Predict the 3D structure of the following.
Amino acid sequence: MFWIYHNGKILPEDEVRIPITDRSYLYGEGLFETMLAHRGKIPFFIEHMERLQLGMQALEFSYRFSQVDLQSALEQLLHKNDLQEASLRLSLSRENTAIGQRQASQNYHLIVFPQIFADNSLNSVEEIKSYRVTLETKYKICSSRLSQYKTSNYLFYLDTHQCAREAGFDEALICNNQNEIIEGTTTNLFCFLDGQWITPSAAQGPLLGVGRRILIELMKKNHIAIEEKAVTLSELKASQTIVLTNAIHGPIFVKSLNEQGFENPKSKSRAIYLKKLWLDKINDRLK
């Protein structure tokens, strides 16, 4: 049995209740964050809260909470569940005023539950996750004002990821309506091409992931050339290295894109260097 955080309380999982009028359940109107916990701490808590606040503004959520108190409560939650290494799933939603009504109330539910997570690569610079990746071309993302926020309306990503897994891949890349490659189903995209890294910009419509933000900041701090721009299929295939990232795993090396392989020592060494910068950042946050 897990212990769950719900609106300021830590409760056994079977005592947490969400009403059927919850708008995340009814319409997919809600926000979520998936946060890495390492050695009992949450290294990128600040970045997740900043993105959550932007999503709350976009959805006009008026829920108020203390980030300091929440961080302390989530560290207690990890201790209560006897977990040092985990991912934490935070969900924020609100209810309708009554059954059959679509008017939003001011009754909110902030829920966080832990998921057991053990990534041995967090303890080794040389060990990096490697993915076999495919490209989803039949179905595409239509950019909207909510594209950059992590909302509960997640079915497209879930379905595309499941189809990729069933086909023997670890991840699928997604295009927008202009046939630009914008992201993976659970990751953001970075390509090394012509001496610099490129990643889709906000204008192309990707989810602006916390892992993406951290990696861009690390590149700039370490004088690594990085440009936010549209990424075409031809640029993707011509890349010398492809890296995916999210807030849980950090940089992930793409060893193949469909039948095209990228697994050579020079290509992988670029990804491992980014992984080193990532681990240094985590260790700095945990000091």
Summary: Residues 135 and 173 are 5 Å apart (CA to CA). The first helix runs from residue 23 to 27.
